[in-house]
From TrEMBL:
Matching InterPro entries: Beta_cellobiohydrolase, Beta_cellobiohydrolase_sf
GO-annotated molecular function: hydrolase activity, hydrolyzing O-glycosyl compounds
Highest taxon, organism lineage: Bacteria
Residues in the signal sequence: 1-21
UniProt family annotation: Belongs to the glycosyl hydrolase family 6.
Species for this entry: Kutzneria kofuensis
Enzyme Commission numbers on file: 3.2.1.-
Official protein name in the record: Glucanase
Pfam families: Glyco_hydro_6
Listed GO biological process terms: cellulose catabolic process
Length: 306
């Protein structure tokens, strides 16, 4: 594989990821929502803490509907490669996405539109190294779908996505989202992962935009793998799991930043997939902040654990 030495050391896609590898191997997005807020509000008393605790950390960038998705992804991955760093990307454009929660509804207009989009997404990465999380909630959300044909189409779209990353982004570590430790029974999730083609990519992602502890997520992953029948690799979103879960998913109080991104830690990687400070929806302690919008108040709550 023609990677930089750093990227090859960081990911070691053929044989696993070394525990304790330098966190500086991940790309820090200079235009993440918290970074932009800090840049635009230098006089705010909260800016220093948000910059130090959140904006300076490598956080995944989410990509949705974009007519030029291949070019957008290519530019972002290229920027990371120019610094010999590995970007973390989230593909989030399934039709009827967030069917359970409804706060982040939207997505591609049809199955064919999605397949065009995800194919271009993977092609935009090309031969460069990257970490990709495929469709948060995409498999767990099936629990809220009632049409068997819609479920079949969703599984087919996710399997197509996995195949595109395998074929068009061979140096990317791609992970199908598999919900969290408190959502879908491990055996059920394993069946869905099989149907969605998990065996053709690196593995699966857990706890995206949720709060379950790393240890509970590892236990759930072990149960999923037991049902799969082999040890698929997995990553865990630790962006907001420092105090664990209280059972609520939408801007609950008392949550805290978790372990900063690193390789290892009991998983392939611990990542900040959800951007800390970005609202889950108009709910919880941010009843007026729409889903996807950054709130300095939410950010400070996560820093302080309040």
């Amino acid at each position: 594989m023609r990677w930089t030495v750093l990227a090859a050391t960081l990911l070691l896609l053929a044989g696993g990821v070394p525990a304790g590898a330098a966190t500086t191997g991940f790309y820090v997005n200079p235009d993440s929502a918290p970074a932009v807020w800090v840049r635009n509000n230098p006089g705010d008393s909260r800016a220093g803490a948000i910059q130090s605790a959140i904006a300076s950390k490598p956080i995944a960038r989410w990509f949705g509907d974009d007519a030029n998705i291949g070019g957008t992804v290519g530019s972002y991955v290229g920027a990371a490669a120019s610094h010999n760093l590995v970007p973390v990307l989230v593909a989030y454009n399934l039709p009827e996405r967030d069917v359970c929660g409804g706060e982040s509804s939207g997505g591609a207009s049809s199955m064919s539109a999605y397949e065009t989009w995800i194919s271009s997404f993977a092609a935009g990465i090309g031969a460069k190294p990257a970490v990709v999380i495929i469709e948060p909630d995409g498999l767990a959300d099936i629990s809220c779908m009632t049409s068997s044909s819609d479920i079949s189409d969703r599984l087919a779209m996710l399997a197509f996505a996995a195949r595109m990353f395998q074929e068009k982004a061979p140096n990317a570590s791609a992970y199908l989202d598999a919900g969290n430790a408190g959502w879908v029974a491990a055996g059920t999730m394993a069946g869905r992962l099989k149907s969605a083609g998990v065996s053709s990519i690196r593995g699966f992602a857990l706890n995206v935009s949720n709060f379950y502890t790393t240890s509970s997520s590892i236990s759930y992953a072990d149960s999923v793998n037991a049902a799969l029948g082999y040890a698929a690799k997995f990553v865990i979103d630790t962006s907001r799991n420092g105090n664990g879960s209280d059972g609520e998913w939408c801007n609950p109080a008392g949550r805290k930043l978790g372990t900063p991104p690193q390789t290892g830690g009991g998983a392939d990687m611990l990542l900040w997939i959800k951007t800390p400070g970005v609202s889950d929806g108009q709910c919880g302690v941010a009843p007026t902040v729409p889903a996807g919008q950054f709130s300095p108040d939410l950010a400070v709550r996560l820093i302080n654990g309040t």
